[in-house]
């Protein structure tokens, strides 16, 4: 398959991974998901990848021990598979600086809020939605951004807002935001694959086709 080689890093069910798989198989994204890496075994995301014939690797702490050993194994897997783009899709582990530096502006993450709201250290998964509801915001959303050394601090690629209804609870709000994530992440990967993203300082310019 022509196009870029993508590695998707996950820690759980992989619904954003599935959105990317669907987009690639539909021809929406010019590339292939060459590798799925999880820091947890027996998660649904791994099963999703295997069901589509995608190579998978599990880098568990219990198997690889020291973080330095896991980091080295991650870098080796990326290099061995000639990865062009790394996508963090619900990946709940720290990406080492050496990988951020080697793949500068080639790592993107999906975050379930409108950065800079409810982001940074400690804000992940349901915690983001709990914080939004506790604060009483009327609008939340999802953000796709490049990854740098600051948690959720990299240049923003795409954002989309979601209205918070009074009746929303954590699970309900999470599902509303996920629907946006499943559109936004494939769109960002498509733009990257087409060479249409240009980072200028801490801003991203989306060039026309």
UniProtKB/TrEMBL annotation:
Formyl transferase N-terminal domain sequence ranges: 5-189
Site-annotated residues for Raises pKa of active site His: 152
Gene3D superfamilies per UniProt: Formyl transferase, N-terminal domain
EC class of the enzyme, as a word: transferase
EC id: 2.1.2.2
CDD domains: FMT_core_GART
Residue positions binding N(1)-(5-phospho-beta-D-ribosyl)glycinamide: 14-16
GO cellular component terms listed in the entry, alphabetical order: cytosol
Annotated residues for binding of (6R)-10-formyltetrahydrofolate: 67, 109
Record carries keyword Aminoacyl-tRNA synthetase: no
GO biological process: 'de novo' IMP biosynthetic process
Keywords on record: Purine biosynthesis, Transferase
Catalytic activity: N(1)-(5-phospho-beta-D-ribosyl)glycinamide + (6R)-10-formyltetrahydrofolate = N(2)-formyl-N(1)-(5-phospho-beta-D-ribosyl)glycinamide + (6S)-5,6,7,8-tetrahydrofolate + H(+)
Active site (catalytic residues): 111
Molecular-function annotations in GO: phosphoribosylglycinamide formyltransferase activity
Pathway where it operates: Purine metabolism; IMP biosynthesis via de novo pathway; N(2)-formyl-N(1)-(5-phospho-D-ribosyl)glycinamide from N(1)-(5-phospho-D-ribosyl)glycinamide (10-formyl THF route): step 1/1
UniProt record similarity statement: Belongs to the GART family.
Function per UniProt: Catalyzes the transfer of a formyl group from 10-formyltetrahydrofolate to 5-phospho-ribosyl-glycinamide (GAR), producing 5-phospho-ribosyl-N-formylglycinamide (FGAR) and tetrahydrofolate.
Protein name: Phosphoribosylglycinamide formyltransferase
């Amino acid at each position: 398959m022509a196009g870029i080689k993508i590695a998707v890093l996950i820690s759980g069910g992989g619904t954003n991974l599935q959105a990317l798989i669907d987009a690639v198989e539909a021809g929406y994204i010019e590339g292939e998901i060459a590798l799925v890496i999880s820091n947890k075994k027996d998660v649904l995301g791994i099963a999703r990848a295997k069901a589509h014939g995608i190579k998978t690797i599990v880098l568990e702490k219990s198997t690889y021990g020291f973080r330095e050993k896991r980091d080295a194994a991650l870098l080796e897997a990326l290099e061995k598979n000639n990865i062009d783009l790394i996508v963090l899709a619900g990946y709940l582990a720290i990406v080492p600086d050496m990988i951020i530096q080697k793949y500068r502006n080639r790592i993107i993450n999906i975050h379930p809020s409108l950065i800079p709201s409810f982001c940074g250290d400690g804000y992940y998964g349901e915690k983001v939605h709990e914080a939004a509801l506790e604060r009483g915001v009327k609008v939340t959303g999802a953000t796709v951004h490049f990854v740098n050394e600051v948690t959720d601090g990299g240049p923003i690629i795409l954002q989309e807002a979601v209205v918070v209804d009074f009746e929303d609870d954590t699970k309900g709000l999470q599902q509303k935001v996920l629907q946006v994530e499943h559109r936004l992440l494939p769109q960002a990967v498509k733009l990257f694959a087409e060479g249409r993203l240009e980072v200028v300082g801490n801003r991203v310019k989306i060039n026309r086709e």
